[in-house]
Design goal:
- It contains 7 helices and 15 strands.
- The chain has an 8-stranded antiparallel sheet with strand order 6-2-3-4-15-14-13-10. It has a 5-stranded antiparallel sheet with strand order 5-1-7-8-9. It has a two-stranded antiparallel sheet with strand order 11-12.
- Helix 1 packs antiparallel against helix 2, helix 3 packs antiparallel against helix 4 and helix 5 packs across helix 6.
């Protein structure tokens, strides 16, 4: 509610002018913002990948818009993973909230031809106006949307977002897509002192990546992060000067970047003892240029069949 609005409403109530009261409440609840199209597209690309399009609950097919303090926040959740994406390239004429179907808003933003879009609410309806276009989206009560946790506490550790993205890229492919051992469907995160290690395996292959923390972890941290959330973190791009902060609790992990907060439930279970799989020593070693190795593997894969998909190193 806008500053001073509650006092104004009380004064109107005492006067007995209920017609004016109805108009005042409508004005207080309505939201009007003008947002940069590109910034909205980026926010919806991340939020849209979380939304459950086939959920039996209509609100889980939606994104929540919150306009306040010169920031438009886009919220999305599937009850296991959630995000809060902040857009500062916005002009807020009237603060407020809206809950709209994600697929409708994503499509409108994607096909927008102008540099900006104006979003204005009328009760639970959102009017989206762009260059040469106007849309009306029927939404829901914002109060029905599940809460998405914010990053309010001190981070356990911090590192450059480019470094974390690089580590995820080297491990996420090895997570199990469908396996009776639920723990290997995620990526193991281990942080101690100034070191972070990510490990993933699907029972047939194993990937490990190491990185250096810019802010040390005060104590050893070990958690299995869901593959879906790990992929979302990988999608958040940024230059080398940006950092990502991480907070791991007993049951959830929170990730904060300059633009977004991601939150997700941790995978419960025991991760395999990967240390026993990695050889302590190896008598045969070779140093090969990465591009050359990739080229030769692609050549060898041309002769693969469904029965034999292996490549022999000699």
């Amino acid at each position: 509610m806008q500053p001073g609005a509650s006092g104004l409403i009380n004064a109107v109530v005492k006067s007995g002018n209920f017609s004016k009261l109805a108009k005042l409440i409508k004005k207080v609840r309505d939201m009007k913002v003008t947002v940069q199209t590109g910034a909205l597209q980026d926010a919806l690309a991340l939020a849209g990948s979380i939304v459950q399009n086939r959920s039996p609950k209509p609100v889980l097919k939606c994104v929540k818009l919150v306009a306040a303090d010169n920031v438009l926040t886009i919220l999305a959740t599937d009850l296991e993973v959630g995000c809060r994406y902040q857009i500062t390239a916005v002009q807020i004429d009237e603060p407020g909230e809206a809950l709209v179907p994600a697929d409708r808003l994503i499509g409108i933003a994607r096909e927008a031809s102008g540099d900006s879009l104006t979003l204005e609410t009328d009760k639970q309806t959102v009017l989206v106006t762009g260059t040469g276009s106007k849309f009306k989206i029927f939404g829901y009560d914002p109060g029905e949307f599940p809460a998405v946790a914010d990053f309010a506490e001190t981070a356990d550790f911090e590192l450059p977002i480019s470094a974390l993205s690089n580590m995820i890229g080297k491990t996420i492919f090895a997570t199990a897509k469908a396996h009776s051992h639920y723990a290997i469907s995620g990526v193991l995160w281990e942080a101690q002192d100034s070191r972070l290690m990510l490990v993933a395996t699907d029972g047939y292959r194993l990937a490990q990546a190491n990185g250096t923390l810019s802010k040390k972890s005060p104590e050893a941290v070990r958690a299995i992060v869901p593959g879906k959330l790990t992929s979302l973190i990988h999608r958040i791009t940024g230059d080398g000067s940006e950092s990502v902060q991480v907070k791991i609790d007993a049951n959830q992990i929170l990730i904060r970047t300059p633009r977004a907060v991601l939150v997700g439930s941790l995978v419960q279970g025991n991760f395999p003892k990967y240390e026993d799989v990695i050889p302590k020593s190896c008598p045969n070693k070779a140093t090969i240029a990465t591009s050359e190795l990739e080229h030769r593997l692609r050549q060898a894969s041309l002769m693969m069949t469904d029965e034999s998909r292996g490549v022999r190193f000699n």
